[in-house]
């Protein structure tokens, strides 16, 4: 018989795998190459981001603007709050990383 901790660990791993697969499937359905992909490949400039936002608004993409741009929700929120963070987001992606906002846990 499996204990609760082992069962919980398996459930978390399954949800994480399913989340990654669903995210990748949305990315593939949304666009072959995202804004970040194109900038990192040298096929677009950082300054082109407003044109990509306009394309998303004018099109019928079935994904969020963050996904269309190639950003996580945390990266998108950071960029909206501080547009100059785009360079940092691009640097993280170039190094195979994503920026994540630290989440606070309320213990009260």
The 3D shape can be described as elongated
Order of helices and strands: HHHHHH
Sheet/helix structural class: mainly alpha
In round numbers, the mean pLDDT is 80
Features:
108 residues; 6 helices
Structure, explained:
The chain is mainly α. The protein is built from six helices and no strands. It has a domain at 31-94.
What is this structure's SSE topology?
Layout: H1 4-30, H2 35-41, H3 49-58, H4 65-69, H5 73-81, H6 86-94
Entry summary:
The chain is mainly alpha-helical and 108 residues long. The chain contains 6 helices and no strands.
